[in-house]
């Protein structure tokens, strides 16, 4: 939403997010594996989902038009990074 400046969330954006998450399921390669990707892949998978959502937002006319590589850069720029001060 932030990376592409979408004005609202559409059904196609939700579907795009679900499809991007499904494409990253370990169960695709191994039926006995977990359904969701491991936490170690969280940032990468979240970025892929964000790009998929932004593409759907563009197609739905609720976000500004950017090339896919520009979208990826925007996602990386706006993705939250947990950085905490040490008080010890």
Structure explained in plain terms:
With 88 residues, the protein is mainly α. It has one domain. Helix content is 48%, strand content 0%. It is built from three helices and no strands. It has helices at 11-23, 42-59, 68-78. The chain is flat and about 40 Å long. The model has no long low-confidence stretch (mean pLDDT 95).
Mean pLDDT: 95
Cα-based radius of gyration, to the nearest Å: 15 Å
Percent of residues in helices: 40-55%
* Overall tally of domains: 1
Main sheet attributes: strand count, strand direction, barrel closure? none
Query: What is the count of DSSP helices, taking H or I runs of 4+ residues?
Result: 3
Q: Which structural category fits the helices and strands?
A: mainly alpha
Distance between the termini: 36 Å
Number of strands: 0
Identify the overall geometry: flat
Which regions are unreliable across 5 or more consecutive residues at pLDDT < 50? none
N-to-C SSE string, H for helix and E for strand:
HHH
Strand percentage, roughly?
under 5%
Outline of the structure:
The protein has 88 residues and is mostly helical.
Features:
single chain; 88 residues; mainly alpha; 3 helices; 48% helix
Topology readout:
Layout (H helix, E strand, L loop, with lengths): L10 H13 L18 H18 L8 H11 L10
């Amino acid at each position: 939403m932030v990376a592409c400046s979408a004005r609202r969330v559409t059904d196609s954006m939700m579907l795009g997010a679900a499809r991007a998450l499904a494409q990253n399921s370990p169960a695709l390669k191994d039926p006995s594996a977990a359904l969701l990707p491991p936490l170690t892949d969280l940032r990468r998978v979240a970025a892929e989902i964000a790009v998929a959502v932004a593409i759907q937002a563009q197609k739905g006319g609720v976000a500004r038009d950017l090339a896919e590589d520009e979208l990826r850069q925007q996602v990386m720029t706006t993705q939250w990074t947990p950085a905490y001060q040490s008080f010890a």
